[in-house]
Amino acid sequence: MSINGLSLAYGKTTILNNISLMLPKGQTLALLGPSGCGKTTLLRLLAGLLTPTKGDVSINGTMVADATSGLFLPPEKRHLGMVFQDYALWPHMSVAGNVSFPLEMRGINRSDREKRVKTALERVGLSGFENRSISDMSGGQQQRVAIARAIVAEPKIVLFDEPLSNLDRELRENMVSEIKQLVTNLGLTAVYVTHDQSEAFALADQVAIMRGGIIEQFADPQSLVTSPASTQVADFLRLGCVLPIEYCSQNYKIRGTNYYLKAPHHNQNHSHVLIPTRAISATSSQDESVTAIVLRSQFRGDGHLTTVRIGDDSFNHEITYLDNLPRPQGSQTALSIDDSQLRWFSN
């Protein structure tokens, strides 16, 4: 799948701006971002539910939309499967009837439909459920029916629009594993929309982090964590604390403090630094440490998640780290920062 310079605007309002990316066959792309960032709009452009203002979309080497020439293939001619957030199942129809529907629309004969429906249900673990009523099934089972319907016609690409958002946490985690296994076993190419970072990282080969109608960063999950492209990405992924810094005495210090950080090179254009949670630890030494006031401490099983305040009256910064001990609110502690784990951002 290839997207080149894709944009969508309504009058003077730009919804998506110059989106370009490429997804190899057999890989999964997660569109990750907060509500209103444009990820579902991009999915609808891929599906053929919206027409782009600029740019083009190609699926398996076939151009399906091109704003310049006016080419636009409708959804039924794009060889897609789609799993919706609300499942979009017909409650008056049986499981087999719901799964069979895309095949009926393609004019597949009854005998072939029955064989394909049986195979699709086996793949999602619902063998023998053909005659079950949709209204008698749990949320997780309904989701499996929706996935079976999406794959029954053996599409070239499957689009998932936040398919697990209506499920409880435990079931959602189980379904993520099942979807991952299914996509892998069937060799599907998939695009998965979510606002949940853990879902995106568990499922995807590549992740596009979206913000304000643009792609802020496009990379594999590990690269996003180790090398966020901007402070916005670092904040969204909650990789730690992004703090303002200033160049002073041939090095950098955190604004509002006298604590100096060791930059890997003398670049005077840095304006912010990401301090990962794992890079911060409490210390008994007063040398090369920063003084902090404890705001709150919560036990979470593997330690005490502690939030502290550093800085003077002009710059107050909150930092969160994992402590071995509970710290009383209002108490003072000293923190050590591992400079080797810092990520630097320029103006």
TrEMBL record:
GO MF annotation, one: ATP hydrolysis activity
UniProt domain ABC transporter: residue ranges: 1-237
Keywords: ATP-binding, Cell membrane, Ion transport, Iron, Iron transport, Membrane, Nucleotide-binding, Transport
Organism whose genome encodes this protein: Paenochrobactrum gallinarii
InterPro entries noted in UniProt: AAA+_ATPase, ABC_SmlMolc_Importer, ABC_transporter-like_ATP-bd, ABC_transporter-like_CS, ABC_transpr_FbpC, P-loop_NTPase
Family of this protein: Belongs to the ABC transporter superfamily.
SUPFAM superfamilies for this protein: P-loop containing nucleoside triphosphate hydrolases
Keyword Transport recorded: yes
SMART domains, A to Z: AAA (SM00382)
Locations listed in the record: Cell inner membrane
Keyword Membrane on entry: yes
Any Gene Ontology biological process: quaternary ammonium group transport
Highest rank taxon of the organism: Bacteria
GO CC aspect terms: plasma membrane
Protein name: Iron(III) transport system ATP-binding protein
